[in-house]
Amino acid sequence: MKKELLISKRKKAKELHENGWSNRKIARNLLVSKDSVGKWVRMDEREVLIDNRGWEKGTSRKYAPETKQQIIRIREDLRVRR
């Protein structure tokens, strides 16, 4: 979900909650999970505007050496099966 869409859904969820809507009804209306709605309505106004998902572009994910080896093995197995 794009940052602008996420922020607008968070704002709308807070607005609907203040108007007495249940989290379930808000989730159905915004097509999101009720758990997300629950988090959003508890956020303060500053937090609503912050999108701290994932990591910065251009920064690669850090894997443990064991995980790297598992990935390599899985890729090799997939190549052999083709």
Automatic annotation (TrEMBL):
InterPro entries with a match to the protein in the record: ATPase_terminase-su_N (IPR010332), Homeodomain-like_sf (IPR009057), WH-like_DNA-bd_sf (IPR036388)
Entry's transmembrane regions: none
Domain Terminase ATPase subunit N-terminal: 10-47
Name of the protein: Terminase ATPase subunit N-terminal domain-containing protein
Superkingdom: Archaea
Stored Pfam families: Terminase_5
